[in-house]
Amino acid sequence: MKRIFRICWETNGSAQRGYIERMMELSLISGGILKIDFKAFSEEVSFALCGALNKKTKENIIYCAQFLEKREVPPPLVVSTLLVPGYIEEEEITLMAKFLSSINKKIPWALLAFAPQFYLADLPYTSRSHAERALAIAREYGMENVRIGNLHLLGNDY
Questions:
Q1: DSSP symbol at 42
Q2: What is the overall mean pLDDT for the chain?
Q3: In angstroms, how far is CA 4 from the centroid of its own chain?
Q4: Mean pLDDT of 94-122
Q5: How far apart are CA 66 and CA 115, in angstroms?
Q6: What pairs with residue 4 in β-bridges?
Q7: 130: left (phi over 0), alpha (psi -120 to 50) or beta
Q8: 58, 60, 138, 151: least buried by Cβ within 10 Å?
Q9: Distance (Å, rounded) from C-alpha 131 to C-alpha 139?
Q10: Looking at residue 4, what is its pLDDT?
Q11: What does the DSSP 8-state code read for residue 155?
Q12: How far is CA 3 from the centre of its chain?
C-alpha cells in the first residue's frame, strides 16, 4: 500500500517571507497545506490578542493566495480566524472579509468557535448567532469557500 506523506503547516503568518516561501513550496510538492491563523485585521486587536502586529501576516496571505491556482484539492492555503467574543466582532470580520475578498474570493476561510482558556478564561464560548453573523458577512463580501469550524464549541451565552 502506497502512503501519501503531506507536509502541512499552521502559522500565525508573521514569519519572514523566505520561510513562508519554503513552507509553501514543501506544501505544494507534498500535497499539503499552509494554514495561516489570521487573528484580526486591525493592528490594535491583533496586538491585544497575541502581542504582535499583523503586517507580515497580511503580506504573507497575499503572497500565498497566488498558489491557489496551482491546486484545487486540497488547497495549498487555508486561512482561519478564531471568533473571540469582544475582540473579533462584526467590524473586524467585515474588514477581514473585505481584505480577503480583494485578494481572491476562493481563499478557504475557517471561522472557528472560541473556547475560553488560559488568559481568556473569563470570556464566553462563541455564540451560534455570532458565528452565523460572521459567516453571513464573509458571504456578503463574496467569499466562496468559508465555513464555521468547531461547531461543537458554539454556545448561546450572548
A1: S
A2: 95
A3: 25
A4: 95
A5: 32
A6: none
A7: alpha
A8: 151
A9: 12
A10: 80
A11: B
A12: 29
> Three-class SS of residue 2?
coil
Distances (CA, A) of 9 to 2, 6, 50, 51: 23, 10, 19, 21
Whether the pLDDT of residue 1 is over 80: the answer is no
The predicted model scores a pTM of 0.93
Q: Using alpha carbons, select from 116, 57, 51 the residue that is nearest to residue 83.
A: 116
Record the cell numbers describing residue 115, joined without a space.
473556547
Task: Give helix 55-65 / helix 17-30 axis angle, nearest 10°.
Answer: 30
- Say what the pLDDT of residue 120 is: 87
> Domains of the chain by range and CATH?
9-153 (3.20.20.70)
DSSP secondary structure code for residue 122 in this structure: T
Q: What is the mean pLDDT of the segment spanning 37-41? A: 97
